[in-house]
UniProtKB/TrEMBL annotation:
Residues 1-24 form the signal peptide. InterPro entries: DUF4136. Residues 25-183 form the DUF4136 domain. The lineage of its organism: Bacteria, Pseudomonadati, Bacteroidota, Cytophagia, Cytophagales. This is DUF4136 domain-containing protein. Keywords: Signal. It comes from Fibrella forsythiae.
Length: 194
């Protein structure tokens, strides 16, 4: 009996580890905006919203800004520090504590013998795991109107990488996965990029 419970417990622990939340990417845009008019950009961290001391740190803000710069240049946009850039790209990060609950759902609460007959049952075992969920949000504004023309965000666990090189890679890949939904190159509208 104890061996079966131990095996079931190890199975659930492995299941919890394998079911850890992955990075989910979503985006939204204004279909009325003609993206062909944009060719230059400037990047700014949204300093008012980067309140998380770890994911919103200056180090991670630089990682995100560098990855954004690389993605946008790869799409054909040109960076500028000038206030007259066509697009203003602002980003922020935040974090929330989350809990994942898993139940084994094995066996009957009444035992092997059935209703009222006793026996060797092992009831439902519930396991939980605490984790930090991070979010990177990228807002792209038309600098003339200050209206958002595109927004992309990723939600998941970014702060689990143990060494700096992997953390660099995690942020670079996260930003790239968000920006792959932005139009393919300057001068194309959303319909042409699909």
């Amino acid at each position: 009996m104890h061996i079966k419970g131990l095996v079931a417990g190890l199975f659930v622990a492995g299941l919890l580890a394998s079911c850890a939340p992955s990075i989910a990417v979503k985006y939204d845009y204004d279909p009325k905006v003609n993206v062909r008019q944009f060719s230059t950009y400037r990047i700014e961290a949204d300093r008012q919203r980067n309140a998380d001391p770890i994911v919103g740190s200056n180090l991670n803000q630089r990682r995100i800004a560098e990855a954004l710069d690389q993605s946008l240049q790869g799409l054909g946009y040109k960076p500028t520090e000038d206030i007259g850039a066509d697009l203003v790209v602002r980003f922020f990060t935040d974090s929330k504590d989350r809990q994942q609950v898993q139940s084994t759902g094995m066996g009957s609460p009444y035992g092997w013998g059935g209703w009222g007959m006793g026996g060797y049952g092992y009831g439902n075992q519930v396991y939980s795991r605490q984790y930090e969920e991070n979010r990177v949000v990228i807002n792209i504004y038309d600098s003339r109107t200050n209206n958002i023309v595109w927004q992309g965000w990723a939600t998941g666990q970014l702060n689990t990488k143990k060494n700096e090189r992997n953390r660099d890679l995690a942020f670079r890949e996260t930003v790239a996965s968000i920006m792959k939904n932005f139009p393919q190159s300057a001068g194309q509208d959303y319909g042409a990029a699909r």
